[in-house]
Write a structure and sequence with these properties.
- The complex is a heterodimer of chains A (511) and B (229).
- By secondary structure, chain A is mainly alpha-helical.
- Chain A is 72% helix and 1% strand.
- Chain A has 20 helices and two strands.
- Chain A has a two-stranded antiparallel ribbon.
- In chain A, α13 runs parallel beside α16 and α17 packs antiparallel against α19.
- Chain B is α/β, with parallel strands linked by helices.
- Chain B is 37% helix and 23% strand.
- Chain B has eight helices and twelve strands.
- A six-stranded mixed β-sheet of chain B has the order 8-9-10-5-11-12, with helices on both faces. In chain B, strands 4-1-6-7 form a four-stranded antiparallel β-sheet, with helices on one face.
- In chain B, β2 and β3 form a beta hairpin.
- In chain B, α3 packs across α4.
- Classes of the chains: A mainly alpha (511), B alpha/beta (229).
- Chains A and B meet through α1 and α4 of A and α2 and α3 of B.
Amino acid sequence: MTALAEPHPAVDRAEEIVRFTRWSARRYNRARTSLPDLFVDVYVSVLALGCAAALAVSFVLALRGEFAKRATSDGGLITDPVFVLPSQALEMMLTFTALAAVVVLSRRLGPLALGGPESAWWLSLPLDRRPMVWGPYLRRTALSGAGAAAVYAPFSILTALERSPLTHAYAAATFGAAVAAVIGIAGLLQERPGAVGLKVAAGVVVAGGAVGAALVPSIWTAGAAVVLAVLLVALVSPRAGLVPGSELARAGAVSGHVGASFYFMDTNELLRAVRAENRAAHRRGSRFFARPSRRPFAALLRADIVAFVRLHPLPTTAVLWLVACAAVMMVDGGLPLFAQLAVLGIAGCAASSGFGAVARRAALVPELDGLVPVSAALVRTSRAFMPAVVMTLWMILLGAVLVVLGAAGPMLILLTGLAGIGMGAGTVRGATRPSTDWSAPPVETPFGPVPRAQLASLMRGVDVTVLSLMPVLLTLYLGAVALPVLLVQGVISVVVFLVVAMTNPHDKASA
Amino acid sequence: MTVRGTVLEAERLLVGYAGAPVCGEITVSVAAGEVLGVVGFNGAGKSTAARTLAGRQVPISGDVKVHGLLANPDAVPFRREVSAVFDEDLFFPSLTVREHLLLVARGHSLPEPEASVEEELTFFGLHARADVVPESLSSGQRRRTLLAAGLMRPASLLILDEPEQRLDPVMREALGRRIRTMADNGTAVVLVTHDPQLLRDTASSCLVIDDEVTLGAPDAGAAIIAGSR
């Protein structure tokens, strides 16, 4: 039966255009989905969600028990810190950082957005755009708020052991509503991107939300946050149709890119998607680049250095991870040793991954590697040079902080510096990981079918970064720098760097 | 022929990316019923200029005016007056060809949308594929769908970016006649093209885009295209 033969809803106005598009899409999808397929999809999804939820709950409860025991025993890596950070301050700092990240991310992703086809077919129509964007925006905001509350609940349970279940619920509700409120402000900022008042308001909501959720959660903070969120979202409502079409299309493109990255579980693609361009840094290093180079490798290295300083204008994220590491060490009562070591490991991996923009960009165009007449190993060496230098500096700073706090002797700085070389090389290994072979039959797991070699692909890069960190973590565990460990660290870092340089990421045998 | 007013005006327009111009300054005006051909070598800046004239890209300097008002694709009257077809292969994956066209017809409040859609399907030879989703279409058929959507709606300014791409010679010829008819009915047309025959058949003047931008006769533009091959 043709589309015209069936009764079409009237589509004379924007609302009806939206309804017409959705109606047609639903009809098409229904025609191609059989009931047994739908049942299997629902069954697998519910089962996977149930398994994940059960694992998460048991993990949180186990951790809570461990933390409770820990609270009555001795400290972590630092037995007698020079400065003690109240545990609530750490909780508030983390909540603040999470809310600040939501502000940045929601501006990157919209929150008012239109996907590719919608941008192409709806934006050119001489109609009010509000009905096109309002529904998805509202859904996004509500889901983000609910999701944030669900994620915050275990965080609250783990960090504030003395609170009652009801207070945890208030904390989660406060955080979820604060997330919805900052998404509301992000929506207003899309219409007026230069409004200083809105940016200040975002800062106030982030700070207030952090204090409310982490320090004084109650029915009042939760209620106030919900009222604020509703108010802000209501303010977006009449302005939703005034957001420029180019902004809606941009946000839709970024959101689609992020969604596809999640769907394909491609972390490199995800980092490419959320990374903001900094046009101010585009001319950085021009004079250095213009200097003559005698050898091809020198020219390549020069190009990689300039690309690095242009694509990494500010090391904000790496500095934040460093601050987080220091804060975790200084927290009152001390986190369990394994938790502190885990934070160091996660921070190291995250910081090094953040310095892989050049390698990630270059990986999109493999032809670039052949532009200069040098071997592929030298190309990878050149690409790993700057991440290794920067990670060495980052690790030296981390080592210095740990030494000042009393985790180990001054030789720790040398050890962490050496580790940075291997971690920097790991950045390039992760950034050039080959895509998963989706044509291979999947492996069945309790969470549903997982593509073969997906895990191996995800771990590529992280593997050598963690390996390079192992001697540092061992030293911190022991509390003293042993000379053999220092030697082992040197060997590991050099070997990791060489392995990364010598391994062709597109060679299946070596991958 | 009656005297017709200016529809599109561009004064000392500089187009490009991140503040870097891709071609020389453009000063041009297109009246109702006029077809302005735009030609140039690959990378000369033709599509960038067309996108800027269509209000989809902010100019580095200079202004674009449509009916005396600054080009603003966020203003409803601008969207009502300007139809632009670029090589954007974006479709709703679950809407058929007919539904895509119906969406445009209804969105522009055409008096008889179903009949208008039928006419376009016939003109572009898409009847047999009207009830399939774009994924099932060939590249040329998708191009025809985009052109049908751009040409079926009322507009006083039509901007086409290389509409001949992926079309067979018969369809190119029919498209040329259609553009000429639309111009005769009062539509101002900006036609970016690499096809000398299409240019000769339709254009009343020609803008040659390079480091310097010059306005000349269509034959001169056609000669430049032929020379670039």
